[in-house]
Amino acid sequence: MGKILDRYLIKEFFKSILLTLIVFIFIYDITNLFENIGRFLDKKAGFFNIFVYYIYFTPQIIILVMPVAFLLGVFFSLGFMARHNELLSLRSLGISSIRIIKPILVSGFIATLFLIFYNDIVTPESIRRMNKWRTEKIYHIKVRGRQYFSNIEFIGKEGWTIYASFYDKRNRTIRNLDITTYKNQHIEKRIYAKRAYWRDSLWVLKDVYIRKFIQDKINIEVYDTLSFPQLKEKPDDFTQRRKRPEEMRLRELIGYVRRVEKSGGFALGERVEIQMRFAYPLISFILLLYGCPFALDVKRKGFAFGFGWSLVISFFYWGIIQIFKAYGIKGSLYPYVSVWLPEIIFALFGVFLIIRAIKKL
């Protein structure tokens, strides 16, 4: 009896989630298409290119709407059972409310752990491919096959700020190479070379000026030619498109934050993003704690009441998350505080609602 009931509840729960996801993804994609249709037509993007673009666009929408899907999923599955007196029949057999919602909470928690991995593996890659497809296929901007690159600027592997006004991929030469190194978030050294060549697996600099900042003094060194093995970047690093933080996996994002802070910069937004990689999928499970009491009580309070309050709680929670996230990005709150404080508060209140609902029922 127990295993049959568990399978039935889990099946109805995930079936409701799937239907909710399909509806929300369709609405979201269609709305986005209507917003961008003029731009697509101006760029003469074909139907196939637009279709593939939305294939890459959809995975990030799944993680975005999944909390609402979880909440409505538990409400529809348990709510319909309560409406058709199935829950009443189960209670008459001596099955408690906590026993009824247990398989949904357990399966929901397992699904949330899966979402954390999904949010780190699938979502960043889909965003990267979406941006690349939009650039090459929608906007028709050629990226592949380029031999010359200008105004290249990025943070190197050692946390240095590297700028090159021109790079010749074919000859592996750089013009106007400018490197700034940092120590304790202060400029330690600035290296300028009119030209740089890749020779024998290292960079050779020509017409080099090195300025070392020592307290209040500046020491200047001049070299006609200087081998520079300290520059770990290879020629391909000067031609690669830099990933945006949302395109990076968690390991890459953590490394990027370290390089930014080592270079003397601040990465508050990226630190918030690191916390959100774990926190946002957990919203789905937290909203289950709100959905279960509403669904169990739908017979007494009505389906419309529970459905309406489910949506209100979802969007209210989402709004609070965005407000605290903004405070974290601006530096008004520590990143982990701005992300986890609302999660903890809503989780505790959700547990309180479940306990109260079980006592009443």
Please give the structural blueprint.
Elements: H1 2-42, H2 47-83, H3 86-92, H4 97-138, E1 148-155, E2 161-168, E3 173-183, E4 186-199, E5 202-214, E6 217-228, H5 250-262, H6 268-296, H7 298-301, H8 303-330, H9 335-360
Antiparallel strand pairs: 1-2, 2-3, 3-4, 4-5, 5-6
Helix pairs in contact: 1-2, 1-4, 2-4, 2-6, 2-8, 4-6, 5-6, 6-8, 6-9, 8-9
Give structural notes.
63% of the residues lie in helices and 18% in strands. With 361 residues, the chain is α+β, with helices and mostly antiparallel strands. The chain has two domains: 2-140 and 267-360, no CATH class; 148-240, no CATH class. Strands 1-2-3-4-5-6 form a six-stranded antiparallel β-sheet. A hairpin with a 2-residue loop joins strand 3 and strand 4 (186-199). Helix 1 (2-42) runs antiparallel to helix 2. The longest helix is centred in the first third of the chain and has 42 residues, at 97-138. The mean pLDDT is 88.
Q: Numbering strands along the chain, what is their spatial order in the largest sheet? A: 1-2-3-4-5-6
Radius of gyration: 27 Å
Mean model confidence by pLDDT? 88
Number of helices: 9
Structural class: alpha+beta
